Recover the amino acids of this structure.
């Protein structure tokens, strides 16, 4: 893996795999958190990604997106950065 780059840490690509060069990468703390086995992933536009990443890309808090999904909103509604009628 070489020397540790500044500001990065070692992360496994496949969390069930071993710590070996083919399964490891240098990542930021944010990337490492999103690669945890408990991170909720969702398919959106043909790609698997984390709710946190989708929320960040759409300028909305991940908690708000997660809460909306739990209440039955579609992923598109959950990612919209607008207020919804809470009585829906």
């Amino acid at each position: 893996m070489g020397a540790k780059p500044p500001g990065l840490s070692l992360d496994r690509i496949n969390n069930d795999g071993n710590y070996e060069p083919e399964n490891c990468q240098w990542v930021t703390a944010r990337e490492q958190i999103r690669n945890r086995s408990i991170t909720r992933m969702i398919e959106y536009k043909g790609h698997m990604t984390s709710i946190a990443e989708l929320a960040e890309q759409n300028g909305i808090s991940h908690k708000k997106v997660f809460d909306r999904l739990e209440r039955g909103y579609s992923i598109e509604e959950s990612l919209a950065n607008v207020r919804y009628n809470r009585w829906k």
User: Anything to note?
Assistant: Helices lie at 29-34, 51-57, 62-70, 75-79. DSSP finds four helices and four strands in the chain. The first strand starts at residue 9 and ends at 12. Strands lie at 9-12, 24-27, 41-44, 47-50.
